[in-house]
Design a protein that fits this description.
This protein has about 120 residues and is an alpha/beta fold. It contains two helices and four strands. Strands 1-2-3-4 form a four-stranded mixed sheet, with no helix packed on it. The N and C termini lie far apart (about 90 Å).
Length: about 120
């Protein structure tokens, strides 16, 4: 009966694997408990001037400038229409459109007041 040592070895491997899995579940469970305690703590000890419950409760700030970057490689046939559409549809008081091109591809015929052609990081 020489096979008893194989069963003993498999039993040892199974125990170590179960111990490793149990420690993994313990660490994962403690992580979940810590997140739950933090959430409960924020709910119980929230400042009286906490976050507003509705969108109307937020104060309205002046909108800041936004930038839109358009990567253009060989879009000479459609870039003008796309820029006209963008200028007509953007409902924002302060924006700038940057069109990234390679030299000699993009030459806007009318002056686009809110668009810039960029090449290698410099504005044109």
């Amino acid at each position: 009966m020489g096979g008893e040592w194989i069963i003993a070895a498999l039993d040892a491997v199974a125990r170590e694997t179960m111990l490793f899995a149990a420690l993994g579940f313990l660490v994962g469970g403690l992580d979940d408990v810590a997140v739950d305690i933090a959430w409960i703590g924020t709910r119980l000890w929230r400042r009286p001037d906490g976050l507003p419950a509705t969108l109307e409760g937020y104060t309205r700030r002046a909108p800041r400038r936004i930038a839109v970057f358009v990567a253009a490689w060989d879009e000479a046939g459609v870039i003008g229409a796309m820029l006209r559409t963008c200028l007509a549809r953007f409902d924002h008081p302060d924006y700038r459109i940057y069109v990234g091109t390679i030299p000699m591809i993009f030459r806007p015929s009318p002056p686009w007041p809110r668009s810039r052609r960029t090449m290698s990081g410099s504005a044109w």
